[in-house]
């Protein structure tokens, strides 16, 4: 059984069925509310949903069965001294160690749970950085959307912030250093790039089998780090991509050389290029990219795929799934070689994660 | 004691109740008392700074009031979600 958690503008859709076939809506939670991220912690089996109520703000919920009762977590919420309020919950990421999870929000901040996600506390080391005063929002707000723990090393962590760059910690969030070497903010005049703080990271993931390897989709640019995020190498220019702008990014958890992106045409035109839906795959660390489009719409298809709307199931062969703001969800059960529509006519899709497979 | 009147889905977080008597001499104090009685409501009507959510209004005797408005025993403070959405 394959289970997808699809966060949409009008609730969480829990899709279930046989891999490679259309999936059915087995449950819908938070009807009418925007579910901007949902995932399952594979260690505990606990599900999480980040829900932003149109009037009553963002809240995090958890459940043991996503089709049944959800409970509200305690937080994430800023302590009084922070004089801030959570605007949106962008991501929940399992950490290293029993009960440890991380949560990224807007305005850009990191929260940590030590009780399996029931309660959350602000990581003050990041929030209190003096440099935070210089951080500026991207179009989606000043958000911490990417959290990359280091398998086997509980204290090492990388986070990606739009548009404040990559920040690394080696002491579980007590102290941080920025790491943007190699990133080129082409959206700024050349003479303004040297001193800028505005590094608009769109997505970042770490290769679990080779933690020093990270991939990043930037605001114009695709990058790979070979040294744990200390520096970044361009893997997007002149390598077969129709555009190096986009948001979605997946790494094959079994192969650190293999990654997938879904380019959009440009920052001013955030749709699939040429009216053609294509996933691009690299099997050589980004030296070359190949279009994977068999089974995807090939013409008159101007889709937008958001940051959190692309995932893998972690299987072998690798299952891949992504959703569009036009309400389709596409899937592949063979590592991207062939695709099919697994759901359609959903509300705009913000997030896709595999629950069980 | 003033009463807080809840409508719509936010009632779910107050045990399904639509009218709840609370203490407090201001609207803010009444909301804080409400949150203390129903912790699941914390963060819904006001954010963690204590600021009223942008698309929520409080009404007393037919008029919108601010959080620092005084409330008296017998007053009914209506928590109203804006007509907004997409």
SSE inventory with pairings:
The complex is a heterodimer of chains A (357) and B (86).
Chain A: E1 2-8, E2 11-17, E3 24-29, E4 34-40, E5 47-53, E6 57-63, E7 71-72, E8 88-94, E9 101-106, E10 109-113, E11 121-122, H1 124-127, E12 143-150, E13 153-162, E14 165-169, E15 177-178, E16 201-206, E17 214-218, E18 222-225, E19 233-234, E20 245-251, E21 259-264, E22 279-282, E23 290-292, E24 310-312, E25 320-323, E26 329-332, E27 340-343, E28 349-354
Antiparallel strand pairs in A: 1-2, 1-28, 2-3, 4-5, 5-6, 6-7, 8-9, 9-10, 10-11, 12-13, 13-14, 14-15, 16-17, 17-18, 18-19, 20-21, 21-22, 22-23, 24-25, 25-26, 26-27
Chain B: E1 3-6, E2 19-21, H1 27-37, E3 56-60, E4 63-65, E5 76-81
Parallel strand pairs in B: 1-5
Antiparallel strand pairs in B: 1-2, 3-4, 3-5
In brief:
Chain A has one domain: YVTN repeat-like/Quinoprotein amine dehydrogenase (Methylamine Dehydrogenase, Chain H, 7 Propeller), CATH 2.130.10. In chain A, 1% of the residues lie in helices and 41% in strands. Chain A has one helix at 124-127, and strands at 2-8, 11-17, 24-29, 34-40, 47-53, 57-63, 71-72, 88-94, 101-106, 109-113, 121-122, 143-150, 153-162, 165-169, 177-178, 201-206, 214-218, 222-225, 233-234, 245-251, 259-264, 279-282, 290-292, 310-312, 320-323, 329-332, 340-343, 349-354.
């Amino acid at each position: 059984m394959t289970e997808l958690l699809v966060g949409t503008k009008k609730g969480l859709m829990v899709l279930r069925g046989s891999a490679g076939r259309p999936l059915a809506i087995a449950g819908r939670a938070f009807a009418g509310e925007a579910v901007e991220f949902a995932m399952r912690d594979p260690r505990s089996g606990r599900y999480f949903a980040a829900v932003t109520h149109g009037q009553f703000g963002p809240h995090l919920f958890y459940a043991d069965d996503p089709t049944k009762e959800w409970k509200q977590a305690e937080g994430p919420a800023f302590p009084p001294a922070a004089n801030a309020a959570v605007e949106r919950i962008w991501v929940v990421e399992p950490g290293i160690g029993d009960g440890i999870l991380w949560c990224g929000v807007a305005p850009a901040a990191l929260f940590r749970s030590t009780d399996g996600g029931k309660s959350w506390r602000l990581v003050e080391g990041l929030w209190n950085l003096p440099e935070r005063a210089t951080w500026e929002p991207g179009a989606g707000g000043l958000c911490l959307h990417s959290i990359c723990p280091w398998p086997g090393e509980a204290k090492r962590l990388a986070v990606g912030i739009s548009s404040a760059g990559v920040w690394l910690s080696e002491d579980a969030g007590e102290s941080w250093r920025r790491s943007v070497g190699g990133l080129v903010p082409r959206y700024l005049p050349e003479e303004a790039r040297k001193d800028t703080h505005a590094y608009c990271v769109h997505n970042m993931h770490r290769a679990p089998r080779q933690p020093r390897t990270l991939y990043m989709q930037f605001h114009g640019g695709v990058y790979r780090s070979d040294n744990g995020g200390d520096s970044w190498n361009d893997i997007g220019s002149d390598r077969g991509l129709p555009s190096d702008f986009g948001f979605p990014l997946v790494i094959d958890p079994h192969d650190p050389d293999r990654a997938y992106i879904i380019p959009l045409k440009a920052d001013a035109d955030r749709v699939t290029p040429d009216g053609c839906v294509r996933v691009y795959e690299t099997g050589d660390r980004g030296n070359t990219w190949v279009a994977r489009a068999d089974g995807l719409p090939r013409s008159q298809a101007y889709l937008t795929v958001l940051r959190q709307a692309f995932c893998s199931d972690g299987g072998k062969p690798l299952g891949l799934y992504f959703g569009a703001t036009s309400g389709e969800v596409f899937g592949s059960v063979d590592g991207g070689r062939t695709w099919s529509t697994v759901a359609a006519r959903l509300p705009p899709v913000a997030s896709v994660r595999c629950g069980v497979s | 004691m003033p009463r807080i009147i809840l409508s719509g889905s936010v009632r779910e977080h107050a045990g399904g109740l639509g009218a709840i008597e609370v203490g407090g001499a201001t609207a803010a104090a009444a909301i804080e008392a409400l949150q203390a009685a129903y912790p699941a409501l914390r963060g819904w009507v006001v954010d963690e700074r204590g600021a009223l959510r942008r698309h929520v209004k409080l009404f007393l005797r037919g008029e919108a009031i601010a959080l620092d408005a005084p409330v008296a025993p017998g007053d009914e403070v209506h928590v109203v979600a804006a007509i907004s959405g997409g």
